[in-house]
Amino acid sequence: MGQFISSLFAAFYTKKMDIVLVGLENSGKSTLLSVLATGEPVETVPTIGLSVKVMKKQGITMKCWDIGGQEKFRGEWGRYTEGCSVILFVVDVADYEKVPIAKKELHKLVISAERGNTQPIPMLILANKIDKSPHMAETELIKKLALEKIQMTPWIVMPISAVQSVGIENVLDWLINQS
Ligand SMILES: Nc1nc2c(ncn2[C@@H]2O[C@H](COP(=O)(O)OP(=O)(O)OP(=O)(O)O)[C@@H](O)[C@H]2O)c(=O)[nH]1
Ligand SMILES: [Mg+2]
């Protein structure tokens, strides 16, 4: 009985978060998720549709929705942001060619998330692959993504390297602060 009550108590009082990971294909979402969950990058294959991973950090159960970034999957991004806790938008900062597409998709997603939710959902923009050279600096990325145009959604940019585990602690701290 005691066990039952404590399980019930845990079910009610455990903090839970739904984290939606989006960004163009090859930006590093699945690699980042592996590093966040286990501390180690893994060899990835392109995500087909989506993959879900649950991780527990400081007593918070984080359910991560890692959605494929290929063009055919991008139409689904908005649907997953409905009712989610936070959005992680991953950008490959070494890919100068694709950043205009990332900008277009990011703004489409912000419009859709602002329409589909009563409260704006905080967005963490991850400037990934800072280990590569050359790569866009944070201010350049902010300009190229036209982030100043975002009005309701709170956003922040963090430079990271998922494969080299750089900046990952900051990502985890941010997530924990949003719970
Ligand atoms: N140099 C470098 N390569 C990275 C980094 N993060 C990921 N990669 C590489 O980028 C490639 C794509 O990584 P994924 O994590 O599969 O990308 P994704 O965003 O999940 O791609 P989709 O599932 O197709 O949307 C892999 O070869 C990774 O090893 C990074 O920080 N630096
Ligand atoms: Mg993937």
TrEMBL record:
It comes from the Eukaryota. GO terms for molecular function: GTP binding; GTPase activity; metal ion binding. Pfam families: Arf. Mg(2+) binds at residues 30, 47. SUPFAM superfamilies: P-loop containing nucleoside triphosphate hydrolases. GTP binds at residues 23-30, 69, 128-131. Keywords: GTP-binding, Magnesium, Metal-binding, Nucleotide-binding. Belongs to the small GTPase superfamily. Arf family. This is Uncharacterized protein.
